[in-house]
Amino acid sequence: MQKRWMTILTVLLFATTLMAGLTTLATETLAKDKPIIVKMTNNIPKYPPSRNPGSIWYDFIARKLEAKSKGRFKVKIYWGGSLYKDDATQYAAIRDNVVQVGLSTGGRMGSEIPEINLYALPFMFKNMEHVRRFYFGPKGFNPQGGPAAKLYDPLFAKQGYKLITFVPVGFQNFTSSKGFLEKPDVFKGVKFRIRPSKLAAEIMEAFGGSAMVIPFMESYTALSLGTVDAGECPLYLMYATKWYETGNYVTISRHSMMNTAILTNPTFYNSLPPDLKKVWDDTFEEGNQFYFKIVQDMEMMMPWIMMSQRPSLQFKWLSEEQRKKLKEHVKPLLDKYRKTIPKEFWDAVEATRPK
Predict the structure, then answer these.
(1) pLDDT of 296-315, one tens digit each?
(2) Which of 65, 67, 189, 324 has the maximum number of C-beta atoms within 10 A of its C-beta?
(3) In terms of CATH architecture, what is 35-351?
(4) Phi and psi of 130, rounded to 5°?
(5) Cβ 335 vs Cβ 341: under 8 Å
(6) What residue segments make up the domains of the chain, in order of their start?
C-alpha cells in the first residue's frame, strides 16, 4: 500500500513539475511574441502627403523597424506635435520613457547642453561631405562612427537621454524681399524672422541685421505682410512653407547647419535583447544614408522647381570667397563661443574638414 502511494505521489509530482514547466514556457513564448511598442513623436507634417524629408525619414524608420524585427517592434508615430506641443514636455516624456523616440533641434536643448550650439554656428561646415564625416566618420553612416557621437553621447546621457543619431536637416539659406544678402553691408536694417533661439538672434545680429521671434506657422504671413524682411531655412523647407512666394531674392549662402538629434530613453534601449538592439542600430544607420540622399537630391532640384512656379524669383550662389568674407564678419561671435565650447569640439570639426 505504501509503495502504491509513493508511486502515485511520484506521478503527481512529475505532472506538477511538467505543468509548471509548460506554463513557464508558454509565458516566455507569449512575452517574446508580444511586440515592443515604440512611440515616436515629432513636430513635422505627416507622410504621406507631406514630402518633407524628415517626414519621409520617420516613415522609413517605422516601416524598417517593424519589417527587420518581423513584427517584434510595433511603431506608432505621433505627427505634427499632436502628442506634445512644446519641447520641454517632449523631453520629459523621453526621460520618463513615455515615448521612445523624439527629436531635438536645438533651442531649449541648447540651454541644457551648450555644446550643441557648435553645429549651428555660422560657416562651421564646408559642405555636406564635411557634415557626414563629422557625424558618421570617414566612411558610411554609422551613428557611432564619427567624432560627434563620442563627444555628445556623454552630454546627452548626463541629461537623461540616449543619443540615437544626428540627422543633418540641411544648410540654411536666406530668402529676402530686400535683395541678395551677399556681403556684410547689405544686412544693415534687415529684419529677420527667427525661431525661439538665443543663438539664432545672435547670428542675425552678428551679420548686421535684427531678429524677431515668430512661430513657424505664422512666418509665411509675417514675411508676406512685411512684418519681417527675411528668413533662413534649407531650400526644401523654403519651398514646403512657401516662403519663396514672399520675396524675390534667395541667397544660397549655406551659412549654418540645421540639425536634429534623435533621442531615446536609455533604460528602454539597454533593455532591448541583443538581436533587437542590432535591428535598432542597423535601421538608424540605414536611415541616415537614406535621408542624406533625399536631402541632397531635393536641395539640387529646389531652385529650378521654385523658379518654374515663380518666374520672378532670383537666386544667387555665394562663392567661397564671399562666404569667407561673411565668416570673417561674424568672427566675434565665433570667438565668443570658443570660450564656452571646449576645444576638442572645434578640433573635431577641423579634423573632418575636406581638403
Answers:
(1) 999 999 999 999 999 999 99
(2) 65
(3) 3-Layer(aba) Sandwich (3.40)
(4) -60, -45
(5) no
(6) 35-351
